[in-house]
Amino acid sequence: MEDQTVEIQLNNCDHTVLSFDSIPSLNFHSGEDHTDSLDEDNESNGIHKVSSAQGPTLPILQKIINLSNKVQCLKEEHTNLSNQAKNISTNPFPDLDILDKLRLLGNEYEVLKKKYLDEISERKRLYNEVIELKGNIRVFCRCRPLNQSEITNGSSVVVEFDSSLENELQIVSADSSKKQFKFDHVFKPDDNQETVFAQTKPIVTSVLDGFNVCIFAYGQTGTGKTFTMEGNPENRGVNYRTLEELFRITDVRGGVMRYELFVSMLEVYNEKIRDLLVENSNQPSKKLEIKQAAEGTQEVPGLVEARVYGTEEVWELLKSGNRARSVGSTSANELSSRSHCLLRVTVKGENVINEQKTRSHLWLVDLAGSERVGKIEVEGERLKESQFINKSLSALGDVISALASKTGHIPYRNSKLTHMLQSSLGGDCKTLMFVQISPSSADLGETLCSLNFASRVRGIESGPARKQADLSELFKYKQMAEKLKHDEKETRKLQDNLQSLQSRLVARESICRSLQEKVRDLENQLAEERKSRIKQENIAFGAALFRQPTEKTQTQKKPPLGPSQLRLPLRRITNFLPPRSPVPPRKMNIPRSTLAATEEKENISKTTMAADTKGLLKPRRISIAVRPPPTTTQVIQPRRRVSIATLRPESNMTTPLHSSVSRFNNGGALGRQSFGRDPRKARYSRLFTPLPESTTTSERTPIAARSSSSKFMGSPPTQAGSWKPRHPTVIALQRKSLVWSPLKFRGMQNCRKSSILPSRPTT
Ligand SMILES: Nc1ncnc2c1ncn2[C@@H]1O[C@H](COP(=O)(O)OP(=O)(O)OP(=O)(O)O)[C@@H](O)[C@H]1O
Asked: Where in the sequence does UniProt note compositional bias of the Polar residues kind (predicted)?
C-alpha cells in the first residue's frame, strides 16, 4: 500500500500534513452535526479549529472534531454544575425540601441507632448466655504428640481418644484399666494451633464486651504449656492469636466502639514479681507488689503497661518478654519455664453512641511445670524453684477447690499467683484452663494427677459472669456519691438549725403576743381605775361645793378643771420620791433668826395638824413635775411629774386640803386667800416653793421665778448667793431639775412645808 498524505488546514497554521500508512475509509460529512467548525473557545483551549467546509474530512479528523464537541459539552455541563454549586454554597438556607429530607433522615438515623444498640446488647447477652451454658470455667485438654526422645525410648501411648465419644479421653493404666475423663474440649496430638484457638476465641473476645477473662495452661513440665500459649513463629500460640483477634474485632466495631489495648508482661519467680517489659533487663529489677486498688481490683503499681496498636508490635513485645523470662534446663525439658508467666491485656472500651465505658483484663498465663521434685532430679537452685512452683500451684489448687466447694473464704492470698488472679478467678469472670498432658506411659502418674485436678476445676459451678464497668469511672462515681451524701448531711443539719430557729422565733413571737395582750389588759385596767377615781373625785368635789356656797360662787367664776385635767393621787408610784438630802439642813448658811422663825412655824403647824388629824392621817401624794437635767446630747423631753407621798387628813370628805390648809392659813393671809379661792389648787399644787424669806419672788410661778434668775434653782440675786435652801427635800429636788406643776399656786410658802415635805428630825 502506498503512502497517502492528507493535508489539513488549520486556522492558525498554514497547513498540517498528516501522513498515514493507509486511509482505509474516508468519511465525508456535509458539515452538519459534529463536523461543524469549532468555535473560538476551542482555539483558545489549544484545540484547533477544523473546518470541513473546504472538503471531506478524514476519520481521525472526524474523531478530533467529535471529541472537541464532547469537550465543549462537558465544559458547558461543568459550568452549569459550578454555578449550581456556587448557588448552594452561597445560599445559607437550603431548600425546605432538603431540610425536610434531612429531618426525616435524622429521625431514621436515631431509630436505626437505637435498634442497633438494642441489637448489640442482645447479641452480647446471647453470646454471654452461650458461654455461660458452656460454663464460665471451662477446661480444655490438650495432649501433645510423643516427642523424639519418647519415641526413641519406646514409650507407649496411654491416652486414647474415642471418636464416638466427643470431648472425652481415656487413660489406659498399666493394668489395662481405663479411666475416662470428660472436658469441654479435647485436643488430640495432631490438632494444630489454629484448631485450638478456634475453640478459645469465643472466650477471649468476651474481654471486648467488658468481661474479665483468664486463660491458663496447667500441666507437667514439657507437656506443651508454653507451646500452646506462646507457640513459635511457625505455630503462633494463643497469646499472639488472641491479640490478633482483638485487633481484628476492634477494627470491625470501630464505628460503634472505641478501644484501647494495653499489654503488661510479668513473671512470678520464687514468689517474686518481675516485670518482663522493663527496657533494661540487666539492671536489678525493682520490687513489685500487689496492691488492692480503691475499686477493689488487684493492681501492681509500677508495672509497665504498653499501649499496643498492631499485631507486629505485639509480637515484638511478646518476644522481648519471653527473652527476659527465667528459664532453666531440667531433665524433663531443656528449656523449662521456671516461673509463671503472665501476660495481661487491658482493654478500655467506650461506646461512641451512648458513651458507656468498660475496662477489663484478659490474663494469659503460662504456668510453671507441675513436676514432682523427686522425678525430675533437681537440686540446689532448681530445687528451690521447684518448691516455690509447687507451692504456688498447690495454692491455685486450693483456690479452685474452695471455689468448687463454694466455701465462704477463698484463699487467694496464699500465693502471689492466686492473689494476682483474684479478680479473674471465680464467679464474676470467665476462666479457661488448658490441661496439658503427655501421651507417654512414662508420665502416666503425672498425667492422672493433672487430669484429676482439671476435673475438679471443671466441676466448679460458677455464677453468671458480671460485666466489668470501668472501675476508675465507678470509683469516681462512688466518690461523687459520697460527696453528695456528705452534702446532704450538711444540708440536713442546716435545715434542722433553721427549723429550731424558726420554732424559737415562733415561741418568741407568741411570748411577745401574750406580753402585748397583758400590756393591753393593764392599760384597760388603768383606764378603768382612772375612770373610777375621777368619778370618786367628782363626787367628792361636788359634795365640797355643796357645803361651801361661797367657795362655790368663787369656783363658778372660774370653773374647775375637767376630770381629765385633775391630778389624782397616785398611791403606787413612789419611785420618784426624792431621797432625803444627806446634807443636814442646819448646816445651811441661813440666818439664825430666820431659821428659828421658820422652825417655830413648822412646829406650830405640826402641832396643829397633829391635833386635828390624829388618827385620820392617810398617806397621800402630791404630784411634782420633774424635768430631767438638760444635757448637751439629750433630746429635750416633755416635762414629767413625780408624786410625793404626804400625810393628809381626809375628814369630812371636803376638798382634801381644805381643812388643814385653812388652819395653816392662820399664819399667812396669802395662803388663806389662795386656798379659799380654789381648793383644787390646794390639793394638786401643794408644791414645793422656796423658803419664806423671798416673799416677793414666791408670788410668781416657779417657772416664772426660774426664768428670771430663780431663787429656787440658784441664789436670789438680791441676796448675792447668801440664800441657800434649808429643807432636805428642797436640797434633794434641787439636785434634780424640777418643774412646777402647771397648776399655778401662790402663797403656799408658809403652810406648804409642813404638809408636803417629810418632817425633819427635830433637833
Ligand atoms: N502440640 C504440640 N505439637 C508439637 N510440639 C509440641 C506440642 N506441645 C509441645 N510441643 C513441644 O514440646 C516441647 C516442650 O514444650 P513446652 O516447652 O511448651 O512445654 P512446657 O509445658 O511449657 O514445659 P515447661 O513447663 O518446662 O516450661 C517443645 O519443644 C514443644 O515444641
From this structure: 652-665, 692-721
pLDDT of residue 288: 85
Neighbours of 351 (CB within 10 A): 16
Enumerate the domain spans of the chain: 59-128, 135-469, 478-524
- Report how far residue 630's alpha carbon sits from residue 188's, in angstroms, rounded to the nearest whole number: 123
439 lines ligand 1 (CB under 6 A): no
Asked if the interface predicted TM-score (ipTM) of this complex is over 0.85, the answer is: yes
Q: Is the CB of 223 under 6 A from ligand 1?
A: yes
| Radius of gyration from C-alpha coordinates of the chain | 64
pLDDT given for residue 512 in this prediction? 93
Pocket test for ligand 1, best of 159, 196, 216, 227 (most atoms within 8 A of CB): 227
Amino acid identity for residue 418 in this structure: T
SS3 577: coil
User: Within 10 A of 693 (CB to CB), how many other CB atoms are there?
Assistant: 20
Pocket-testing residue among 226, 234, 239, ligand 1, by greatest number of atoms within 8 A of Cβ: 226
Backbone angles phi, psi at 629, to 5 degrees: -60, 135
Ligand 1 centroid distance, CA of 373 (Å): 19
274 C-alpha to ligand 1 centroid (Å): 23
Residue 144, ligand 1, Cβ within 6 A:
yes
For ligand 1, the distance from its centroid to the CA atom of residue 209, given in whole angstroms, is 32
Q: Is there an atom of ligand 1 within 6 Å of 337 CB? A: yes
C-beta 585 within 6 A of ligand 1: no
* Residue ranges with strand state E in 62-151: 137-143
Q: What is the per-residue pLDDT for 578? A: 45
Q: How far is CA 305 from the centre of its chain?
A: 33
pLDDT at 173: 85
Query: What is the phi-psi region of residue 488: left when phi exceeds 0, alpha when psi lies from -120 to 50, beta otherwise?
Result: alpha
Q: How far apart are the first and last CA of the chain?
A: 184
Closest residue by CA, ligand 1 atom 15: 224
pLDDT at position 355: 82
What is the DSSP secondary structure assignment for residue 469, as one 8-state letter? B
Q: How far is the CA of 313 from the centre of ligand 1 (A)?
A: 25
Q: Is 145 in the pocket of ligand 1 (CB under 6 A)?
A: yes
Q: Do domains 59-128 and 135-469 have the same CATH topology?
A: no
What's domain 135-469's architecture?
A: 3-Layer(aba) Sandwich (3.40)
Give the pLDDT of residue 574. Answer: 41
Q: Which amino acids are annotated as binding site for ATP, given as ranges?
A: 219-226
Give the residue whose CA is nearest to atom 20 of ligand 1: 222
Fold entry, domain 59-128: Four Helix Bundle (Hemerythrin (Met), subunit A) (1.20.120)
Given a contact cutoff of 8 angstroms between Cβ atoms, the answer to whether 697 and 705 are in contact is: yes
